[in-house]
Amino acid sequence: MPVITAEKLQTFAEALFVAGGSAAEDATIVSASLVEANLRGHDSHGVMRIPFYIAKVQDGSLNARGRLQVVHETPAVLVCDGEWGFGQVLSQELMRRLIAKAGVIGLACGTLRRSAHIGRLGEYAEMATAVGMTAIITANTHGAAPRVAPVGGKRPRLGTNPLCMGMPGGKNGPFILDFGTSATAEGKVRVKKIAGQPVPLGWILDPEGKPTTDPNQLYGDPPGTILPMGGDQAYKGFGLSYMVELLSGGLSGGPCAHPNPPPPLGNCATFLVLDPRHFAGVEHMLKEAAQLEAHVRSVPLIDGVKQVYLPGDPERATLEARQASGIPLDDGNWNALLKLAAELKVTPPAI
Question: How far is Cα 284 from Cα 290, in angstroms, rounded to an integer?
Fold first, then answer.
């Protein structure tokens, strides 16, 4: 299993994107976003996505020159079309505009449609918390790539439909809650598939609705499904996924899940930004965040448990470890990058 520094990995990723047809500025933005996902342990949203992104650029479905287009605007609202450009480029621009609006009137909501994959939602929540604001973000799969069946069903109907919330004020950094409403992200299953490894029991069902650890079962014909989050109460996860589907597609002007879905490409998304200065005030929010954190962390621990984790803790721990020791990549995904590099005549880094 190769281990590579973030700096080397980003330089390599940038070179691949430029060779694959991206503008240098966009290559920097997208590669930084992917590597930051790897640094935080979200490998399903990291550099393993590069071959998919570049394949979509080369077949013309991802517009490497796409830019954020404002369809409708009010003091508090932005409805945007992404021209099928890189999702990270579009989403960062939209968040910058929403943060500016929220600073003036207290809150702002933006939607995005016709965007290629927007990556790790926590990245955009971090943009808000970095300036003392809060954020709530949802995304669907733009009517494509259904992976999750309703409880009791054996065919997929919804995407993995992530939900993210970000709050400033943590002792060690902001509170960032970023999760799919399914038992796992589809990208994590894909990582295992490429690596030739089984998935944990409880992630997916085969086409007959039976538990399986074979990631290939998700991509068959007929396909298997990813379980909704919630275990024995999976209807809660599916209910969240259903509402995220509507929030993301229904508000943006993009599609929700529907019959005969197109090939996967990107997301519809809704971004809500709130400035606490216009609510109870920054001082109150930070005071309550501090006392709540202290209260929760002081809980007596079950024997054998070393600590409780709050939103953002696992990512910070992984970030610290990988900044110090490098980013591990399984052989399957690393070989996929090397194969792409050979095709694009890009020299891979020495590791």
Answer: 10
Q: Model pTM? A: 0.94
Structure tokens at 132: 């003392």
Q: Which amino acid is at 261?
A: P
CA dihedral 210, 213, 219, 224 (to 10 degrees): 10
Residues 18, 35: Cα–Cα separation, whole Å: 16
Single-letter residue type at 255: P
Amino acid letter, 315: E
DSSP 225: E
**What tens digit of pLDDT does each residue of 306-333 get?**
999 999 999 999 999 999 999 999 999 9
pLDDT for res 15: 98
Q: What's the pLDDT tens digit per position in 237-256?
A: 999 999 999 999 999 999 99
Tokens representing 190 are: 């894909």
Q: Which tokens go with 351?
A: 């590791």
| Three-state secondary structure call for residue 138 | strand
Secondary structure, 3-state, 229-287: CCHHHHHHHHHHHHHHHHHHHHHHCCCCCCCCCCCCCEEEEEEEEECHHHCCCHHHHHH
Q: Kindly report the number of other CB atoms within 10 A of residue 72's CB atom.
A: 10
**Among candidates 25, 103, 31, 15, which has minimal Cα distance to 67?**
25
| Residues 127, 305: Cα–Cα separation, whole Å | 32
